[in-house]
Every structure is written in structure tokens, then in C-alpha cells.
Amino acid sequence: MRIIKATLEHLDLLTPLFVTYREFYGQLPYPDTSRTFLEKRLKRGESVIYLALPDDDDHKLLGFCQLYPSFSSLSLKRVWILNDIYVAEDSRRMLVADHLMREAKKMAKETNAVRMRVSTSSNNEVAMKTYESMGFRKDTEFENYVLPISQD
Asked: Given a cut of 80, is residue 76 above it in pLDDT?
């Protein structure tokens, strides 16, 4: 398995799995809008996306993760938000997520980040166990809140 950093040339490969990921979380597919969203993130350097590919096939995507940069005012350092991670259904139990997160952790270290953050739905026990096995700890210091912004 190879982990590579996505570029604009990977959009056709990435978009279908990104759409499947969104559907997994109950969103409508919107393939064209999804592709445009990914294209903007890559063009503007607003995210880092890693792709997991088999050693012998550049046209099959096993999984991906997308990280967004942020900062911590208290530590005066960079923080990476592991916002999206998804493994194709036929590639599960191959440690794809582990390989993607190791690459993300390496990048976080190289950019002198103080931490990486991740969240998942409260019933996604497989993801929680995977994150904990990679060294993520549940945040017991801060409660997280969300403020939905309506577009009326």
C-alpha cells in the first residue's frame, strides 16, 4: 500500500469515494458539487488530502483522509483537524486507516503542530477504537459545542 498526497490530478479518482463517504454520513451525493469542493480545497491549499493506493494500481483508491489547518492561541502553535477519513468498503480490515493516520501524524510533526484533532459520530465504535489505537485520547478538558448557521 502506498500513501500519497493528493493533487488536482487525483480529483477523478478521489471524488467517487468522497461522495460515498458523504452518503455514509447521510448526505445527498452531489458528485459535481463534491468535486468542486475538493478542487477548491486543493487549489487554495486549504486542506491536505492523503490517498491510500494499492502498490500495483494507480486507478484504485483504498481510502483517503483530509486534514484542515488550524491554530491554538494557547500554545501558539499549529493544530491539524483530521476532518475526513474513509476507507472503501472492499478495503476494510487492511489497516488502510492506520496507514493514512500515520502519514497525517508524520505531516503534523513535520509542520510543528501541537496536536491533531478528530471527531466522529458517537455511535461509530470502530472509528473510536481505531483512533484510540493510534494514540488519540478523548478530550476530557474541553466540551465541544456546535452553532449551526442558517442560510436564510
From this structure: yes
